[in-house]
Structures are given as C-alpha cells and as structure tokens.
Amino acid sequence: MADQTQHHHLFGHHNEEERKHHKHLEELDELGAAAAGAYALHEKHKAKKDLQNAHRHKLEEEIGAAAAVGAGGLAFHEHHEKYNAKKEEEKAEGKHHHLF
C-alpha cells in the first residue's frame, strides 16, 4: 500500500486528486453559503409578516446569516487549499513560475 501511495505521489496523481477534492468541497461550501443566505432572507421576510413571532424569526435570520458567513469562509479556505495543491502539483512536475 505504501508503494502505491509513493508511486502516485511521484507522478503528481495525489496532488491532482487532492486538488479535485478541495474543488468539490469549495463548491459544496458555496452551495451551503447560498442556502444559508436564502434561509436568512426567508426568515427576515417572515419576521415582517408574522409579528407575533417576529423575535424568533429575527433570531433564526441571524443564525442563517452566521451559517452563510461560516460556509463562505470554508469555501474561501478550500479555494486556497485547491490553489496550494495546484502549486505543489506544478512544482512536482517541474513547472516553476518566476517573476524575474
């Protein structure tokens, strides 16, 4: 098993798989951020319409907004992990980007 892992690493397959994995997680986190944001807007609308339970809807709106921010942060993190995996893959393949 260790030989397979080392073999994949030598040819950059591991980093390519890692990059695809981070891309997938980034997309899921973006979807989660959009869903949580939509939920927050829905609760904001309900707070205006349902005055008896407005306080509860405002709390749920804040929870949805916090979840959207958290998911957005996770998407940002995964984006950078994907970028780092790509750079490692390029480095393993001998592609270097020099500024000078």
UniProtKB/TrEMBL annotation:
<dbReference type="InterPro" id="IPR003496">
    <property type="entry name" value="ABA_WDS"/>
</dbReference>
<dbReference type="Pfam" id="PF02496">
    <property type="entry name" value="ABA_WDS"/>
</dbReference>
<comment type="similarity">
    <text>Belongs to the abscisic acid and water stress-induced protein family.</text>
</comment>
<protein>
    <submittedName>
        <fullName>Abscisic stress-ripening protein 3-like</fullName>
    </submittedName>
</protein>
<feature type="region of interest" description="Disordered">
    <location>
        <begin position="1"/>
        <end position="24"/>
    </location>
</feature>
